[in-house]
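Notebook, p. 212. Picked up where the previous page left off. The plan for this session was modest: take the two constructs that came back from the sequencing core last week, fold each one, and keep the raw output in the notebook itself so nobody has to go hunting through shared drives later. Recording the first one now, exactly as returned: residue sequence, then the structure token string.
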Amino acid sequence: MTDLFEMLNTITRRRKAVAGSPFASVKSTEKWLKNLPSDSDYDTHHALIEGLERFNAENESASSSRMKSLMKLEAAGLPLQLRIVEQYVRNQASFRLARQALWRESWMFWSLLAEAWLRMLKQAYRNPESAELKPSAAEIATRALRYAGLVMRWDYHQARNPAESAWRRVHKIYRLVERDGFATQEVTINARSTHCAREYTLVMLMGLVHPLGYRAQEVEAIAQILDGYEPLPLPTQMPRPGEHTHVVDLSLSEGASMLDGACVQGRRLRYFALRPMIEYLKSRDQTAAAEGDDGLTRQMASLIERGGIRRNRQRTNRFGRVWVAGGMDNILTALANPDTSKVQAALEPWVLRDESMDGMGFALSAAQVLPHGRLMAVSCDPSENVWHLQAIRWTREEDGKYLVGTQCLSRHPKRVEIHVEEEGSGAKQDKTWAVFLPMNHSEQGVSNLLIPRTHYQLGAPLTLLDGDVVYRLRLGEVQESHEGWLRVGMDVVGREQFAVAA
């Protein structure tokens, strides 16, 4: 009789589990997938996203059965996701609302898969009950890396920099798999062979290209070009001077950067030899097959070649006080002519620690909320009206002090007046202030323009008034977003004196 009661209790528990969760077993997951709505790809995809949300919210202990259920959801969702992405890319020229909805659907799918596989990876290592998953660690980690990278890629679609936490996540996963020796263990995802080192490299390469402001078609084209390049240059621990061109620090919350100077070996440093890829991209741009790229591969090669934030330039210790105008309102006020301006910029005294050709380092006595990418104008003597425009790139606490590192965007920024013309009509909008960022001939880079996000449209004609000179411009690609302002490239179409233009 006792055995009968135990058997009945077991059956009851199983039925409750099935009734409570459609993912309690592989068979119940398959049954749930068969009952998905089939009216349209969007409806099916949305229902699958709700299923993934439920799967993650259950917070069940990881097991071999649960991993197989997740793989069933993944296998059913990837073909649907491909079709949703195709619709999203096609709808860029029209259907703005549909475009945003499709972007969100795609982003949610990648995010939920990334979260599910990352949780499973953590439990496989931390939960003794999940030890059965350790033999599948390569399968799990590769997927966690791949989908984390796709979430970051979808941020680029919205002209957003990937969060620092996203960079930390991919670095930690890669360090784990490298430590355990399965970084290059082959796994199959969506009928294609890959491995952790390959997925990690693709994330780093996308970060080097940094396609902020690129159209959806271009972002996806860049990803496909990188994915199709063979042999993909994988990260190595031992630097080889003359061969390695880029480096990534696994202890930092950022991607790879150009290697400038001597190769120094470090426990957390990984090196990439990207020169063959750069040459391939340049040669591809020159072939007839690349006519449809519109110079995309050449741009990719240029961005990778100078990509990333260089931190290893020689720095000079310079201790002293400087004055900082933070935020665009204060920057515009600081750059105004002090003789005619009726308003004074709000300035803060900061202590300078060091300086290089690329930027400055500061030490603050108290922590401040300083988002990466925030702009600030810096001057040793505001009365001289000489300013450098800097962008915050990193912050950290050390020995009770709050350290800040900035990159110099221009040593001679100018506040200028702009009018954005409506194509074909010649009509102009009201006067708007912008900041012109000229570069010295000796510096690596090109001149840019800082304009409000509301005034940007790729290729739009623009009139810039600088003193008594009028420039006719065309707005180029977005280089970076800075809290509602965009740093964009530009092409000078014409130049004339103000009196003639009037």
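Okay, moving on. Second construct, recorded in the same format:
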Amino acid sequence: MDPVHTGPYTVREATPDDAAGARSVMLDTFYREFDYGYVPAWHEDVIDVQGTYLTDPRHLLLVATRDDEVVGTTALHSRGPASPPHPAWIAERYPSGPTAQLVRVYVRPEHRRHGLARTMVRMACDFAARRGDYDCVYLHTNVDIPGAEPFWHSVAKEICDARTTGEHGPGFGTVHFEIPLPHVHVPSDPR
């Protein structure tokens, strides 16, 4: 996958050298924006960035960098949402294997509004489509984060607003989304 340059930023596939920077962006988001910090049951991939995203050919970690500093992340893996904490019907609709789950779409606050998240999400969806073994892209988001809800509504289809169904319990602004896979033309073998 070719890197994408947008202003002073570069969006590209992560390398092992990016693991510490990516982990820092993720952990800072958990502690500073989500206000609940690192939860081992939910965030095991953050500790083993390399093993989770860089060694499995079905998984992907993208980073947005500026002057070699990781300022944003987006990841994709082949595990569907877990129940609990998510509703059982969501886990059944998006099973592990054929579901590409989009996770860790984070951009440091001072680097937002430059199209980085949108670029990373597009690249991750293109990756899933090119693989040919995913049926759809699923994600859930915390819409209590400023800008999250309008962003996701601009790129994805809402499946369930758990705030209105009460399926996550009080205090969780979780909304579930699906992104249709883009059509990717794969040339036939000329032989």
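Notes on construct two before I forget. The chain has seven helices and eight strands.
Flagging for discussion at group meeting.
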